[in-house]
Amino acid sequence: MSKALRTLLFSCILLSLSVSSYAQTCKSYSFSSNRVYASCQDLPVLSAFLHYNYSSSANTLDIAYRVTGATTSNWISWAINPNGQQMAGSQALVAFQNSSGAMRVYTSSVASTSISTLSESALSFGVSNLNGSFVNGEMTIFATLTLSSGMTTVNQVWQVGPVSGNNPQSHDTSSNAANMRSVGTLNLLNGTTTSGGGTTHGSFMDLVDLYVTKPKMGELFGTTAWFLWNHRNKVRLNDRTLLLNRVGEAAKNLVQQVQSVREGHRGVRRTRRCKWTPPQVGDFKANFDGAWFDESDEAGIGIVVRDSSGLGGGGLIVSVIGGGIWV
Length: 327
Ligand SMILES: *[C@@H]1O[C@H](CO)[C@@H](O)[C@H](O)[C@H]1NC(C)=O
Ligand SMILES: *[C@@H]1O[C@H](CO)[C@@H](O)[C@H](O)[C@H]1NC(C)=O
Ligand SMILES: *[C@@H]1O[C@H](CO)[C@@H](O)[C@H](O)[C@H]1NC(C)=O
Ligand SMILES: *[C@@H]1O[C@H](CO)[C@@H](O)[C@H](O)[C@H]1NC(C)=O
Prior knowledge:
The chain is α+β, with helices and mostly antiparallel strands. The protein contains four helices and 16 strands. It folds into three domains: about 170 residues, Sandwich (Immunoglobulin-like); about 50 residues; about 40 residues, no CATH class. The two termini are about 25 Å apart. One 2-acetamido-2-deoxy-beta-D-glucopyranose binds next to loops.
């Protein structure tokens, strides 16, 4: 198992390195038509980038919000939210390709989280030069915003979601979705950003970091991966299996059990207090216990049989050494 675990982790690290070599950064990106922006941010989730020019004298913000890996059935949106790092109150720019193949780009003031689509409405600040493009899987919104003076640190909210029948539909709202972490602040004067959606766990590089800095987490990861794989096999065969939301807990328990057995074998064996109850008259009860020792490749099983008065009717000690059985 530990060899398989190492192999699995190693392939994950290799995979993550090859994935990250494809990762783009906004700094190396050049727009067609000689458009240049002085600043840019690689947004932490949703394969999104913000390129911008900010003029503190004119209070204008020229932006290009760019999403890679978009399709004709995606909408994209970037917003400033004067109310907070949240959806409700977002002053949004929205774009998607409509069924005629044209880019529809508009503004939408998002009143609440219970809306069914992003309908067009005016924003609380001025917007001009609104335009959009969709080329080679990259969808971009261009705009010039005229902000009020002093609006130098803004809450930004960005999204990608599905389009149906020329209407943007709700994005993924499951609690761990990237769409729930796509908020933060942006300081327009010096480019400092914060992520409002908590730490952005979820990329392969996070996993590599975790594995390097906390080796014990590697065991947990491998075990969780095994449980998921096992779950998937069981589902395929219509077998009974754990509920998917119990997998994390089951993996944690198994890792803890293995660790405590390992520690126990190093000398500090902890014994659980169990209470034995005798079987009914005429019945016998067999109790057994087993242990497995990694270092010496040995295992042992002990069996005790007793009757209703608790008298030992018999017993058996079995040891397994390198595949042979000794009784
Ligand atoms: C952004 O500002 C630079 C000068 O800093 C200018 O050359 C460029 O044209 C501006 N880009 C846009 C899109 O306004
Ligand atoms: C698609 O958008 C273009 C440009 O806004 C518009 O002229 C056209 O009517 C739209 N088509 C549909 C089906 O909404
Ligand atoms: C908007 O974008 C389209 C396609 O990228 C381009 O042809 C058009 O000239 C742009 N319009 C403006 C006003 O910049
Ligand atoms: C950017 O500006 C903010 C507030 O104006 C300040 O708190 C922050 O330390 C600055 N960051 C850098 C990197 O200069």
